[in-house]
Amino acid sequence: MISVLFVCLGNICRSPMAEAILRHKVGEAGLDGKISVDSAGTGDWHLGKIPHEGTRRMLDQYKISYAGMKARQVASSDFETFDYIVCMDDSNATNLRKLPGGEQATVLKFMDLLPDHELREVPDPYYTGNFELVYELMDAGCQVLLDKICQEKL
Ligand code: 4NP
């Protein structure tokens, strides 16, 4: 099983959107049981909460399930558990590096999946309110990530 962890700050807006979208694409590609997907936040304010209303609205619109998803905080053990760790912005990467084992961990930046896009970080819709933009970025970037995993590992 190849495992992917998306990381943002609160684990209620961006990383749960990515988790739901990639899991949906994995299912569409017939790869359930080959690729597992999870998400976590570097912060602990929203532990146990379901995704933000804005994230749920976008996922509902595109008929993508977020059933059972609850916010959790990232832990050092995640560095050993996951094959791919993908963060949303530079501050997420900095926060991950500060955790024990974080210096040695390989952390990808989501926007590096979309090198031609002018944005280099995924804007936080908790502050911008722009969940549509995040959906567009997640949809495009998760497809690139899925193709990358298939090439590299499957
Ligand atoms: P996320 O957005 O990192 O995309 O889940 C945020 C959610 C909550 C907070 C910040 C960002 N917060 O400060 O509570």
From TrEMBL:
Principal EC category: hydrolase
EC assignment: 3.1.3.48
Record has Hydrolase as a keyword: yes
InterPro entries: LMW_PTPase (IPR050438), Ptyr_pPase (IPR023485), Ptyr_pPase_sf (IPR036196), Tyr_phospatase_low_mol_wt (IPR017867)
Reaction(s) catalysed (UniProt annotation): O-phospho-L-tyrosyl-[protein] + H2O = L-tyrosyl-[protein] + phosphate
Domain of life according to the entry: Bacteria
UniProtKB keywords: Hydrolase, Protein phosphatase
All copies of domain Phosphotyrosine protein phosphatase I, residue ranges: 2-148
Family membership noted in the UniProt record: Belongs to the low molecular weight phosphotyrosine protein phosphatase family.
Listed name of the protein: protein-tyrosine-phosphatase
Gene transcribed to yield this protein: yfkJ
